[in-house]
Amino acid sequence: MAKEHNSKWYAAGLAFQCQQSGNCCSGEPGHVWVTKKEIANIAEYLGIEGEWLPKKYLRRVGFRYSLTEHADGDCVFLERSKDGCASCRIHKVKPTQCRTWPFWSSNLKSPEHWNEAAQGCPGINRGPTHTLVQIDEIRLMKAPS
């Protein structure tokens, strides 16, 4: 296992600190996958009765569920202040997919993939360095079912 860690291109760690740009929560249409447990947690956090979210927040995609987006591509829970900072209305209970950004396997394939993600995310390559162990713990985080 240690050998596998040492062979990763990011073995020395990677810097990341959220800059509240909201870029990871907006843009081209996509999916923010949520489990039934995450849906229930979000509903409870928002004070919605029952353990489900209304259609304005949630859509079914095949056999899975995704948070909805506004027409401009912003996540339904993204809020922007007048000073340009963005925040998540459900930050304390945000889905695992959101919690693991930017340490997604797709971004960690190579330095080129990481730097491509950095073009849209001002927090990548800024702030504290996350160790290989921290990165892998985040990357491998499982969503509650």
Please give a quick description of this structure.
26% of the residues lie in helices and 18% in strands.
Across the major sheet, the strand order is: 2-4-3
* Number of helices in the DSSP assignment: 5
Question: Which overall shape is indicated by the principal axes computed on the Cα atoms?
Answer: globular
Total discrete domains: 1
Poorly predicted runs are: none
* SSE arrangement, N to C: HEEHEEEEHHEH
Classify the secondary structure makeup into a structural class: alpha+beta
Percent of residues in helices comes to: 25-40%
Describe this structure in words.
The chain is an alpha+beta fold and 145 residues long. The chain has one domain. It contains 5 helices and 7 strands. It has helices at 2-6, 36-46, 96-99, 111-120, 132-139; strands spanning 14-16, 33-34, 58-61, 64-67, 78-80, 86-88, 124-130. The mean pLDDT is 93.
Q: Main traits of this protein?
A:
two-stranded antiparallel sheet, alpha+beta, 145 residues, single chain, 3-stranded antiparallel sheet
Mind sketching the topology for me?
Layout: H1 2-6, E1 14-16, E2 33-34, H2 36-46, E3 58-61, E4 64-67, E5 78-80, E6 86-88, H3 96-99, H4 111-120, E7 124-130, H5 132-139
Antiparallel strand pairs: 1-7, 2-4, 3-4, 5-6
